Amino acid sequence: MITYIVVSIVLSIIFGLTILTEIVQNKVKVSIIKSRYLYQFWSFVFFVIFYIFYNEKISFLNFDNVLNIKNLFLMCIAIIPIVLLTSFNNINKIKNKRLSEGVLGAILMEIPQRLLSQNIFFIFLSEINTILGVPVAIVLNGLIYDQFIIIQELINTRKITKKILLDTVLSFWFSIFIGLLYYNTGNILLTMISHGAIYFFRNLIKKQINNRVTID
Q: Angle 133-155/119-128 helices, nearest 10 degrees?
């Protein structure tokens, strides 16, 4: 419980720094880092600080256990259902930003979600319980981002719609299997590829469907 509160506070501080940085950049009219990447930037700063103290317990570029069937299965089961369930919703509402920017944004979200928060959960919960620490850490890491999805909607005074509920379920689904992938491999690049693949294939399918509808 304490670990969950600590991670929530850390992510809230990062969110606050993101908003503050965006305000400062807008006032001075200098955009050093694009607004859509500020949260990932500050998350990386916090990860570096955390890594300084716990570097012996953190693995994020391990290549010893990358290429095997189990990891491929985890990637597929994490990616395919989400792509299929989200590709056919709001077909005409494809975001205007370039596909490359969207994919990069998705890739970089693995910094706060896996590199920072999941490692914090792993380290502290594994010390409390060596057997249950890992699965509990993965579950809590999934729940904490669902929590922020709901909070963001409430802050913006928007209703919790079926779409938002679906987003939370799919976010949790992804976090569970990609969390397992990260734990098995200790390689953040695989999780980044997985996250970017969802955005890439989803938007690719949407554009193809939209083009067919337009032609018809």
A: 140
What's the mean pLDDT in 99-110?
91
Instruction: Work out the mean pLDDT of the chain and round it to a whole number.
Output: 89
pLDDT at 185 over 50: yes
Other beta carbons within 10 angstroms of residue 109's beta carbon come to: 20
List CB contacts of 117: < 8 A, sequence separation 6 or more: 7, 10, 11, 141, 144, 145
Number of helical H runs and strand E runs in the chain: 9, 0
Is residue 156 within a helix (H) or strand (E), and if so which, with residue range? none
Residues in the chain: 216
Q: At what angle do helices 188-215 and 69-87 cross, to 10 degrees?
A: 30
Question: Beta-carbon neighbour count of residue 165 at 10 Å?
Answer: 13
Residues 6+ apart with CB under 8 A from 37: 104, 105, 108
Retrieve residue 19's tokens: 């908003």
List, in order, residues 6 or more apart from 22 with CB less than 8 Å away: 35, 38
Using a cut of 0.90, tell me whether the model's pTM lies above it.
no
